[in-house]
Design brief:
This protein is mostly helical and 387 residues long. 65% of the residues lie in helices and 2% in strands.
Length: 387
């Protein structure tokens, strides 16, 4: 029963997404197809984890993966719009920074409402999402869709290099079959920094389990701290990672968990400090769990949890329900091996998020591929939890 629970939940999620697209029950709801893309993608990744290893890395399957990924990637490249919302959004962030204003309080940051009308508010991504794009803007002396896309491709390429370095025992050509998904799977929004941080975390986790050291847990905590200030997916990964290390029979195991978590949160506070911690918390975090506030500033895309609750006029309880879903996914982490725990938390987060975020599917696929690579290596990890 437990073996089929994840597939059943994901199958139900696909059904809910399709039903919402047919009924369109959410007032001012748009792009119901995003929920279908997200849930279908998560279901396919769950099936990817079940493919027999000898078939997964066979030449026909790898060729098919490469062709499908490349086709989707070329389609994404062809659909890039020079005047897209995200380009104009970041452009106003840079204008605020260049004139000495705090983008979390300026009130001049470009957004687009459901009617395609420009509305202005504050920056609502965590602060690490400013730096790579701001540096690219300063280095090139301009800001447009080409600079944005080029920056994301560079970050994605670094993540792919990280994968090669993490699994030197697997042929590069086999890993490269997945590169079109990682490089081009999402280049119209900006999950690339989250992708790179996740790739770095995977590399450190794998090395720590192969050969534990005193320094690497500190590096993991610091990288988690940076990751918490990227686009949100790292939060459930960090929670699952540290809770996975909890041993109910050894209360002392809470010591390293608290230490690592505390170091990560301290790093995040330092990154928020230049913009004002409370301003970042209000605009980047509280904003994203208030369905009414989101709908007032940006277009609302119904997800499989937020959509039905909004349709039932129960949007006010959404944050509580979403938190309970996430808590349940994280609390099971000690019963799972590391990578299943990470994948469970990531999938639950994407289903419970206010809006569907298929932009993160390449990152979930990266985690799944890392799990299969470890499995192929024999899960030879000292002390081990395998994958």
């Amino acid at each position: 029963m437990k073996r089929h629970l994840a597939a059943a939940i994901l199958g139900l999620s696909v059904a809910v997404a399709v039903l919402m697209a047919i009924l369109r029950p959410v007032p001012h709801g748009h792009r119901y197809d995003l929920a279908i893309q997200l849930t279908s993608g998560l279901l396919l990744i769950a099936l990817f984890l079940k493919v027999p290893r000898r078939r997964l890395f066979s030449k026909p399957v790898l060729a098919a993966v490469f062709v499908v990924g490349l086709t989707l990637g070329v389609n994404n490249l062809a659909r890039i719009k020079p005047g897209s919302e995200i380009v104009r959004y970041y452009g106003t962030v840079f204008e605020a920074l260049d004139t000495g204003r705090n983008p979390y309080a300026a009130g001049t940051i470009f957004h687009m409402d459901e009617n395609g009308t420009a509305v202005y508010g504050n920056f609502n991504y965590p602060p690490a999402e400013i730096y790579p794009y701001y540096w690219a803007y300063k280095i090139t002396g301009r800001w447009d869709s080409s600079v944005l896309t080029g920056t994301m491709l560079l970050l994605n390429a670094l993540g792919c290099v990280m994968l090669l370095l993490t699994f030197p025992g697997i042929r590069a050509v086999e890993l490269a079959a997945f590169f079109p998904f990682f490089m081009l799977g999402e280049i119209r929004t900006n999950p690339s920094l989250t992708f790179l941080v996740t790739a770095g975390l995977v590399a450190l986790m794998v090395r720590e389990r192969r050969r534990p050291s005193r320094v690497r847990p500190i590096a993991i905590a610091l990288l988690f701290g940076l990751g918490l200030m990227t686009k949100f997916l790292v939060w459930p990964l960090m929670a699952a990672y540290y809770w996975n290390r909890f041993d109910p029979k050894r209360p002392a195991s809470l010591g390293p968990i608290s230490g690592g978590g505390g170091l990560a949160l301290g790093t995040s506070l330092l990154l928020m400090a230049p913009f004002g911690v409370m301003a970042v918390v209000k605009e980047a975090f509280l904003f994203n769990v208030s369905l009414a506030q989101r709908a007032g500033l940006t277009t609302f895309y119904p997800n499989v949890l937020s959509g039905p609750l909004r349709a039932l006029s129960a949007g006010t309880i959404y944050p509580v329900v979403a938190l309970l879903v996430m808590a349940g996914a994280v609390l099971v982490a000690p019963r799972l091996r590391l990578f299943p725990a990470l994948l469970t938390a990531a999938s639950a987060f994407l289903l419970a998020a206010p809006t569907p975020e298929p932009q993160f599917l390449p990152i979930v696929l990266f985690l799944a591929l890392a799990a299969r690579c470890l499995e192929r290596e024999g899960g030879a990890i000292p002390g081990g939890e395998g994958t």
